[in-house]
Batch of 4 targets.
Target 1
Amino acid sequence: MIQLLKKYSIDCDTNAHFCDKIQYNEATPKEIAQYKMHVFICKLCKTHSALNTELSKACSRARLTTMPKTAKDDLKAKLEKEMNN
Ligand SMILES: [Zn+2]
């Protein structure tokens, strides 16, 4: 049992990385299991995870969008034109 825990144990930096991957649905089942096990025993990462979840929810509610590539290219062309005058 202890060997299994050692095999699946990760440090806080790795856990933060897995937390981000989970938020973006990019984590493997093994990474999710390691993350859950680490959060269960690490109070610091548990707090980080809760804040990360809140941030993701806030971004989702804000319905953030990015500028379309065509609009970016138009803006870039206008700026370059202005800078050359
Ligand atoms: Zn931790």
Note: Residues 12, 15, 38, 42, 44-45 surround zinc ion (CB under 6 Å).
Target 2
Amino acid sequence: MIRGPLEYNRLASRDVVAGALKYKNLCGRMEEVSETETTPVKLGVIGGSGVYQMDGVEIVGEHEIETPFGPPSDGLVETRVGERTVFFLPRHGKGHRLLPSEVPYRANVHAMKSAGVTHLLAVSAVGIMKEHIRPGDMVTPDQIFDRTKGIRPSTFFGDGVAGHVSLADPFCDELRQFLAEAARSCSATVHEGGTYVCMEGPQFSTRAESHFYRNAVDASVIGMTAIPEAKLAREAEMCYAMLAMGTDYDCWHETEEDVSVEAVIAILRANAEMANRVVQVAAGLLPEVSSCACLSAARFATITSPEAISAKAKARLRLLYGKYWD
Ligand SMILES: [Zn+2]
């Protein structure tokens, strides 16, 4: 486990000097961190199944963005929601062309980062794993159980640069709370917290799997996209939270019909309308600046010595970590 030594190293070398925190990073350099460091908040929204655009907002323009990790799922749509600029990206592309396993997650998160997004809000359709959550309810999960198959690129590191970030709490608590408050003010039924199982798909669960997730994982919801999106948002130092929209009971529910695509699509439409309202209210609730720990989550992530990082790798990761390496 690398997380233990990293945390230990960070704490052991921490020293408070005249209102600032000084850290010795893993390469031995001293870094100074202001305790009151704040960042202007910019909101990005990734829309999932059924949410391919934001309705009722001013569209400023659409940006075609290339990233070192290829093109994102679609153009990045710049909108105005009240006084706030909000960037929107349909996760599966317009017209829903991409399977969960095919979504270019790294390019999507990198594109948001290049637009200056600090707070990333994921809107996702999910299967329901608990009796008391009803189709049409909203959930703001606080944990993820990864059941993807390792076929999705899930880190910005690699190719000559080793790095590790903590993922103990994959969702930002602050952003989750704003999201839940927004959902309540839209009169949505919202369930705060709970575990999201991320499966590979594209098929839904077998009955044996569904019972396993309920009994062994105590899952609240199941979906196909939070991994690697949450991992990459953390590596990109963004606050990340999810508005999970319950569409159907997964096949564990004995008295409900098994999941049918038709039933899911019908409720997706109603959920999309609610999600659109919740996101716009959330945009109004967010503060102007934030000092959330997510925004510096990779400050001590890089293990590789800066002098050992190739010029090519530095160029590829400049947007994300250049400030720490230069
Ligand atoms: Zn945060």
Note: The first strand starts at residue 15 and ends at 17.
Target 3
Amino acid sequence: MASKYINITLKIWRQKDAKSKGQIETYKLDNVSTSSSFLEMLDQLNEQLVGERKEPVAFDHDCREGICGMCSLYINGRAHGPDTKITTCQLHMRSFKDGDTIYVEPWRSKAFPVIKDLIVDRTAFDRIQQAGGFVSVNTSGRTMDANAIPVAKFDADRSFEAAACIGCGACVASCKNGSAMLFVGAKVSQYALLPQGKVEATQRVLNMVRQMDEEGFGNCTNTGACEVECPKGISLENIARMNREYLVASIK
Ligand code: SF4
Ligand code: FES
């Protein structure tokens, strides 16, 4: 598709640091190629701001191809913008029209405090992952080859789907309760479905849920916004599986 150029108005959340009060600021940006990605459009804005000797907008990104989970932006009131099953870095300006006004905000959640402008602190996810999102492997030299352990196709597929979670936090940002259950459910499921993950399953789910609660995330009330906004299509069934795992672990 041939690219064309559009003129847009951006309303962007600016916040000097974690302690300052933020506000929405307005910028006009002309000649934005519809072939550029949303992040390239923000790069273009920052070049304009630097040229005007103004502070560029701080935003997170890394891979720019939908796998690292860094580009966490609320765009026009939706996590990762108007399209479904993509991250902000996969969103293109062809999704917008000439003359559009686009609101860009950081994730809004108590457990993800704003660091600067559009960047939030998502290290709460790292701490949950560190609490149990791993498999301990005996490296004595007599470790069984993982490929030698049979796994039922159904379980392998469900585990693979859960492992697609990139830890972006859209589930938390889109949840009215600020719940991290979809993220934690995906991480717990990824291992609980595999023989390698069953060894530490009891401690894993107890530790990850405890850490999730300590980080200040809210509770799940089954509204399902997380599943709708998740760029990787992580299913609510992962929350149900985590709840079952947690119940069994608690009784044990
Ligand atoms: S469950 Fe989906 S929305 Fe939540 S962190 Fe994982 S990929 Fe992002
Ligand atoms: S920058 Fe890595 S997922 Fe968007």
Note: The longest strand covers residues 23-33.
Target 4
Amino acid sequence: MDSVQTATQEMMKSMSELEVEVDKSKAHVGAIEMEAKNVSVWFGKRKVLEDVNMAFPKNSVTALIGPSGCGKSTFIRTLNRLHELIPGAALAGEVLYEGNDIYAQNVDPVHIRLSIGMVFQKPNPFPSMTIRGNVLSGLKLSGMKRSDHDDIVEQTLTSAGLWKEVKDRLNAHAGELSGGQQQRLVIARALAVNPHVLLMDEPCSALDPASTLKIEETIRQLSKDITIIIVTHNMQQAVRVSDYTAFFLAEENKPGYVVEQGATTEIFGNPQDERTLDYVNGRFG
Ligand SMILES: Nc1ncnc2c1ncn2[C@@H]1O[C@H](COP(=O)(O)OP(=O)(O)O)[C@@H](O)[C@H]1O
Ligand SMILES: [Mg+2]
């Protein structure tokens, strides 16, 4: 009897492992662009992120959601090595980009940050530089020698959904643009160096609803060609723009961790964890 039970348990165990495998392959159709493996983070002695594992399929949009302070910004910064610029910051685990560890010794962080661009909450163009100058400002740093500057300016501003609004004043100062336009300008600036990944940390939280919708449209368009990872506090936004969602949480004085992740339709429509259900329905955070 015992041995039958054991055998059954063994069989069920291997079946559930099999299911997990099948599920994984379904959730990650296509190649994986980036992957975080067992990422933990410390500031000084304080651990703020615990063992995050996440895969980002090529040309998909992943939303990172969760209450303030649970480590979303910290996590997204580990994905292009901005994290290491913070004094006292430490990291364990691996971040793979196109299969290679971005923290490997021979990797130049400057090039990583060009391939894996970042857009912040507060738009940060160079205000006294022209619109055109802003778009092209990353190219020099990248060492890319391209002469088709006019094309780059038009293409990237078009992709960022800003071209029509600024095409007749490319030599105006970026500081003259509205907040929403400035945010689209820094997206164009990031795109000018041909990134494969764009990280966005609450890119719309300082913007009005109309600008927010423009950025969301831009995100959907961009995701045909690049992989996007976006932190958002706006649940409707996560549903509108993302294919995958990861829900982060941190209990008081404990490091943040991922409670649940998967297809956005599942996380919002059929979450497995009660805390996810409560969060996506606005019951806390
Ligand atoms: N530069 C820093 N130095 C020390 N602690 C930090 C720093 N940045 C963030 N933290 C801490 O790390 C935790 C996660 O913060 P953060 O990643 O900003 O969360 P979120 O983006 O989810 O609001 C918080 O407890 C925060 O206080
Ligand atoms: Mg944050």
Note: Residues 43, 48, 66, 68-74, 86 surround adenosine-5'-diphosphate (ligand 1) (CB under 6 Å).
